[in-house]
Write a structure and sequence with these properties.
Strand content: 25-35%
Number of helices: 5
Distance between the termini: 58 Å
CATH topology of the largest domain: Immunoglobulin-like
Mean pLDDT: 75
Radius of gyration: 30 Å
CATH architecture of the largest domain: Sandwich
Low-confidence stretches: 6-12, 75-82, 241-245
């Protein structure tokens, strides 16, 4: 008696996923797949585009296999691209900085340095990395190449929608009235601003005659390492009225 009850109980206690798959197969075999996409993906809405590729939208006929494969590749490629360049934590390296010697006085000794500033969506600014602690990068204008490399000095930054980054390059040996600063020209807002690539460095202030702007460049290497941390809820402000839980009214 106990064994028969146990057998009936185990068959009735099928997992919800198995029951859904069984119902899904029955719906497909009976031709009831028109509205199944929303039912199947109500707990996982990110699967809806993939289901629509195979089942079609309500009232539409299914596409041919080659068209489905092509559309599937597009959806997957878009999802991977978004995850690789979307908000999250990134490891970044400034591989190379190169400056045009004609932007400096011949014969001077320069010290090429760089820093990265972050400006969050609220307007707060902070320095997330700078090269100064790693020593000098000396070069004589007209004799040496004005370049620096920090490929072995990676740093991590967190990027959220609305955050901006500024890459600045300057000569640390320049005087107050001969300072020359360059900033990375990057205006993309939908992808990680410090993504891998080569970018122009635009000089600030007066540009020396005869300079070649194309020789001012910075090369970055970066990769996404994780998701952004969940920020704790902000406590109520002191001037905000505190929420009081409703209590039952007791009449005596």
């Amino acid at each position: 008696m106990s064994n028969s009850r146990k057998g009936r109980r185990s068959s009735a206690d099928k997992s919800p996923l198995l029951r859904r798959i069984t119902y899904f197969v029955v719906m497909i075999m009976s031709g009831g797949g028109a509205g199944i996409g929303g039912w199947l993906c109500k707990d996982h809405p990110q699967l809806q585009p993939l289901v629509s590729l195979f089942l079609g939208k309500p009232g539409e006929a299914g596409g041919e296999v080659p068209q489905i494969k092509s559309a599937l590749k597009t959806v997957i490629a878009g999802a991977l691209s978004a995850s690789a360049s979307g908000p999250g934590v990134y490891k970044v390296t400034i591989d190379t900085v190169q400056l045009d010697p004609k932007a400096f006085t011949p014969g001077r000794t320069v010290d090429v340095q760089a820093r990265v500033r972050k400006i969050d969506a609220g307007g707060s600014e902070s320095v997330v990395w700078e090269s100064k602690p790693f020593g000098e990068n000396l070069a004589v204008v007209g004799r040496d190449e004005l370049s620096a490399h920090w490929s072995n000095r990676p740093f991590e930054v967190e990027w959220r929608a609305g955050d901006r980054f500024m890459v600045e390059v300057w000569d640390r040996k320049a005087g107050l009235f001969s300072a020359q600063t360059f900033r990375m020209a990057r205006r993309d807002v939908d992808v990680f601003p410090l993504a891998t690539g080569e970018f122009a460095l635009e000089p600030e202030g007066r540009v020396q005659p005869g300079t070649d702007p194309s020789r001012n460049r910075v090369v970055l290497a970066s990769r996404r390492t994780g998701d952004s941390a969940v920020r704790p809820a902000q406590p109520p402000r002191g001037d905000a009225p505190a929420e009081v839980a409703e209590r039952p009214l007791i009449i005596r």
